[in-house]
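Support case: user asked for a sample of complex input and structure output to validate their parser. Sending the pair below.
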Amino acid sequence: MSMWALSVLALLPAFALPVFVACRDADTGNRLVAAELASGLACCLLAALTFVIDQSSFMDIALCLALLSLPGALIIATFLERWL
Amino acid sequence: MSAVVGVLLALTVLAAWLGVAGFMRLRDPLDRVHCVAFVNAVAGAGLTLAAFCADGFSDRALKILAIFMVNLLAGAAISHVTGRAITQRGESA
């Protein structure tokens, strides 16, 4: 097993915890911050996964996720500030 | 070079776990935002350096660098907007 595969396996539980908080926490602010943390970790995971399976298209998914996280977070933050 | 990549990947995983541990330990969302910035900066830097050590100046490594830069720059804006939203919400409640 390569070092990249080991790092992906080690990152998976770290990714699962904020996902769980984002799904289950009672406070909406905590859920938004957890989703942001999960988004950053997902980028790292997908980037490392590119080296594991040698599939370069995974890098484009990570790049799209990084680019789309900004407008996504802005929209959710606006909703949180005004209506939620 | 393989050992360097291993060390950088270990640093990445350690930074991710440290950020998640801090995130779980802290209770206030305004405190938790700092953990997000830490993970984006340190884990992203480790992964980017590991990619450059493993691949050199390849397309893949440059894309990881782009992801790192986007996460770092957009993360600052996202942290600010999130903090403002949480603060405004707390004041209006």
